[in-house]
Records
---
Amino acid sequence: MAGYSQADAMNALDPYIDDLDAICRTAHATYRAYPPEVLIEHDRRAAASCIYSHMVSEAERRLTGRDGVVAMNLRGLYVWVVAQIVTIRFKKMDEDGRTRTYPTKQAKDYDRQRELPGLPSPPINLVVGYLPDPTETEIVRVQVARPFGREAIGPRCGAIALGGCDAPSARCLTGLEGNGKV
């Protein structure tokens, strides 16, 4: 199978950028709508877990069944294959597009761009996620990152930004360098 570039991956995602942004924002808003007496009981891990569940559900609603998108559950790793080029999963992120969890071997292999059964080869495995503000009550931005294990090779993260593209209201992917700087 042919190798694909980062540009190929971003072009494949282009028709879905609004949905990817909405998946993360809707999931966060759904969680923030919980009653205050429930929210107060959740630590950051519980909050991230609830938001993740809402992201998976929202992705099912928005992406599954669309032309060129295949949803897969690989032993608990929920991914969506887009245009047989790119695979995406959803996570909470830091400003550099890194996730903060104790990953399974399968998740580590995904992040290291290793081949996984049933996914496109060679892999372009991306993570779509939200960057919360310090209080975790608002989303600073939605990001798309191409992880390379613990080591970053080149630019690893882009933000889904409003405006600055073809139209003032359009969403597009803007590059981010380390520490979240555009």
---
Amino acid sequence: MHLPPNTTSRLRGLADLVGTWRARYDSAFMLPPEWRGPEPEGPAATWRAWCLAGVGHGGTPLFAPWSMPQVQQRFTMARAPEPAGPWVDSLMCDLDGTARLRAASGRWAGRWLRVRVKAGEMAWWRPRPVDAPWDAGYLHDTPSVRERLGAFVPRRPTLLVARSPDPAFLSRCVRTLSVRQAVFRHPVRLLVLGGPPAFQSARISG
């Protein structure tokens, strides 16, 4: 039996939506940051603003959950002139909710925070809260990362950080993520620390 094209695309969209709800942090693709403290340090605030620019409200119509969320810039890449330091981990821990989770008083408060976050992510018709947690992690040139790169789909807004990457690996990441952004339901940011001057900055909108 052949389904109409619009039905097929809607079913695929629903499957993608449910898939993001069920997905977990992929530690084989990105390495989580180290907790450095409760407040962003140094240039973290500047790069946090860069991450949030163009993320859109992230909601979809109530009766069309298969639709792509409203996001102005699905993929953006930039090279930081600042050297790597504790501010990078502070930035990621601020974005991914680690700071909020550590500030929660007690184990049950932390669990309740996780429940509220997941419930908010499942309410597809609501705009994404400004403080909604991201996924954040370091991207390393490993066989596992190269294998997963071509199938990467963010489960929530995501910040990937590459430290002094090999030019060929960085080029592959930018090219692959640029192409795949068409299926991203959430914005992805690639922040390069060091690296070749040819990749001083790039902005790819979708």
